[in-house]
Structures are given as structure tokens and as C-alpha cells.
């Protein structure tokens, strides 16, 4: 799924979730001190497609945000299995498994060739 289609799907999902109402934007509120800023949404292996990163030293994170810890790094030469994507920090993120290292987690789609997974989680 191309990035433009993913963004449209995320926008339609937001409208559907609000019953068709368009809600005004509000300022972001910081998490309370001591609260975890990372979240890990559910995922499943819907795509099972092959993929790779478009750069070296790409963090594989515990959730779809840079606030989440890195479990390891993927290299452009590594083979990845793409599972599915979610809307996350500054765009969409795909859940992946690095077949070279066995590490699983989330990578921002802009760091993946072909914009990551094609199925939403």
C-alpha cells in the first residue's frame, strides 16, 4: 500500500471513529511524570511479505514512536518480514521481523523500501 493510501485510510478511520464528526485539533499533553510514553499496539502477521530498510542502523523499536526503546538495528542488507502497519509518531510504522538477527518490532515506514507493510494491523 502506498503512503498516500495509508494516510487516507488513517484519516477515514479517524472520521469513522468519531461517528463522522470532525473534531478540532487540540494541543498535545505531556504524559505525567513517571508514565510510560511508549505504547505497543496489537499486531498480526497479515502481510508476511519480504522487505528491507533503505538505510543502515535503523532502530527496531518496541512501539511505533521514537520514545520506545530500540531492541536492535536493521541494516540495508538484512532481510525483513513485514507483518502489518499502524499509524504512529509522524506517520505510519510497520511491525517487522529482522530475519538476519531474529529481532522483531516497529520501524517507521519512511525507513523501509516500498513504504513498509501493505496491510493495516
UniProtKB/TrEMBL annotation:
State the signal peptide span.
Answer: 1-27
Keywords in alphabetical order: Signal
- Top-rank taxon of the source lineage equals Bacteria
Key word Signal present = yes
Its recorded name reads SH3 domain-containing protein
According to its UniProt entry, this protein's organism is Streptomyces tanashiensis
